[in-house]
Amino acid sequence: MKKLLSILLASCVLTGALCACSTESTESTEASSEETTTTAEETTEETTEETEESSEESQEEDGFYPFDYTDAYGNTVTIEGPAEKIVSVSPAMTEIIFALGEGDRLVGRSDYCDYPAEVFDIEAVGPIDLPDTELIVSLEPDLVIASSIFSEEAYNALTDAGITVAIVRDESSFEGMFEVVQEVADLIGIPEEGAAYVEDLEAAYDEIATEPSEDAPSVYYCMSYGEYGDYTAGADTFINDIIEAAGAVNAAADIEGWSISTEALLEADPDYILVPAWGYDDFLVTEPYTELTAVAEGRVIAIDNNMFERQGPRNIEAVELIQAAIASASDVEEAA
User: Fold this and answer.
1) What is the number of structural domains in the chain?
2) Roughly how many angstroms between the first and final C-alpha of the chain, as a whole number?
3) pLDDT confidence of residue 65
4) Contacts of 330 (CB under 8 A, 6+ apart)
5) Among the listed residues 271, 279, 336, 323, the one whose alpha carbon sits nearest the alpha carbon of residue 298
């Protein structure tokens, strides 16, 4: 700029010098312009290349598909991309999908999927183990999610039709529920959202979970009774973890699995009994359960058994239900 001003001032005295300097300036400016243009083009190309490389690297780093999922059958299922249309043949999986905010992607559900209420707007495809596979195929789902009770016959019929089927593993611990939620999130294409939701669930669990004390009350989970047989939740079940997380002791902790004898129940004589709402009234008047202290003293609690038996976010509500029932009974006893 200073050079240019000097040339302009000199032109007032020597016109010839002006011409010479003007020519020289023009050539210099043109050269500078060419250099600037070339540099700008090179910079733009470099920036574009860097952006593309960065985008590609980001996609590689964040890329999730395709991914392989080993299901409950031990089969490796390759998920190619996010499922836009899903059929859930498991009430627990259906609840999880809704909890993740993706219920609008469900085009089919089992006859037993009944929560939340919006689920009844989705077409039912039959029972959990052996649904109507032809109906499922007609719905053209990208993915079918089922539980380990799903029959091999139904699995083969759907996979032979070219439909991806994922059998989600059942877990035997409360912590396993978090893994189930994450697996479902992965399968339907929202792994990051799933991870964030699991963090929230874990935080909620940590806030309410309590270790049973030495004098903790005993709780018996009645899955069925009477003519249907006595079934409960043994020490190796995730319902056992729900009871213990509530700060109570599982009255059936000395057994494994789900079966218990009536004699063992009477001997345990639990402080509290959890009975499904559908059998509550009958349980209270059925022999020999009327001999139980909890029945005589009014410490039998009617529950929504699905909160306990389906692995999912509502398991946390199940813990809170037990805690509230024990606290309420304690308040009544103190008031008396």
Assistant:
1) 3
2) 98
3) 86
4) none
5) 271
Q: Indicate whether 124 and 199 sit together in one domain.
A: yes
- Element at 202 (helix H, strand E): helix 191-208
Residues sharing a CB contact under 8 Å with residue 80, sequence separation 6 or more, in sequence order: 65, 66, 164
Are residues 249 and 142 part of one domain?
no
Q: Which residues pair with 250 in a beta bridge?
A: 219
Find where tokens 């060419």 sit.
34
Per-residue pLDDT reduced to its tens digit, 271-292: 999 999 999 999 999 999 999 9
**Residue 76 pairs with which residues in a beta bridge?**
70
| pTM for this entry | 0.80
Are residue 201 and residue 222 in the same domain, yes or no? no
State the DSSP code for 169: P
Burial of residue 191 (CB within 10 Å: 0-12, 13-18, 19+) is middle
Q: What distance in Å separates the CA atoms of residue 105 and residue 141, rounded to the nearest whole number? A: 10
What is the C-alpha separation between 106 and 61, in angstroms, rounded?
29
Distance CA 158, CA 147 (A): 15
Whole-Å CA distances, 45 to 42, 48, 49, 59, 165: 5, 5, 6, 21, 46
